[in-house]
């Protein structure tokens, strides 16, 4: 395993969680954090923040736990200073796929992202059953070796398994495939439909006078059944009437070109939107 890991943004939301995981796993962890709130958060659990120069000195792996809009700027600042063979780990595909990373052939770029705990699982501990983000409940992760020697794939995957432990599966993909998964599949397909469902509950209550709790219970219960049937957790046995109504509703809800959102050009444009901080 790598002995020294520098985490930039160690006191932020994601950075704090992964920094604690490295410390607990016994790594030489350099918690690089410039914000007072983040430094105080680290100090509360006994982790001393260091400056960037001290953190990067001799680090074998550098984790960029930073907002997507800052990754390019910070990478261009630090990558020229790193020793040859250093691995830089990015926790999201947006900046790498948008071309925000500086070119340097003797540096390894590795990209990983958690899948988050699955909706249907075998967790029995109450804390794990309540964990929707990961860190307590088991989850799968997705990893991509963007550039670097093939031997570095397992090192990067192990770094990701530590950050997002406990991990039940590790999937290897390309950076483009990871970008299709996020922002594509998760944020450009799943999230808009979830947002529309939440809005529909409010319309049921506000426009049609249905008690909001009734609409909420009805939707959540039916989602449980429908997700289970469509994704193979139970036999897919909807009624013929339900299938006909679903086909009828798709004409109102979905354009014929909706799957274009997963195409590389659209995904790349979305990654550039994320990195540049612009709106659609």
From TrEMBL:
Transmembrane segments: none annotated. GO terms for molecular function: NAD+ binding; prephenate dehydrogenase (NAD+) activity. It holds the Pfam family F420_oxidored. Residues 121-274 form the Phosphogluconate dehydrogenase (decarboxylating) C-terminal domain. One of its GO terms (biological process) is tyrosine biosynthetic process. It comes from the Bacteria. Residues 5-89 form the Pyrroline-5-carboxylate reductase catalytic N-terminal domain. Keywords: Oxidoreductase. This is NAD(P)-binding domain-containing protein. It comes from Paragemmobacter straminiformis.
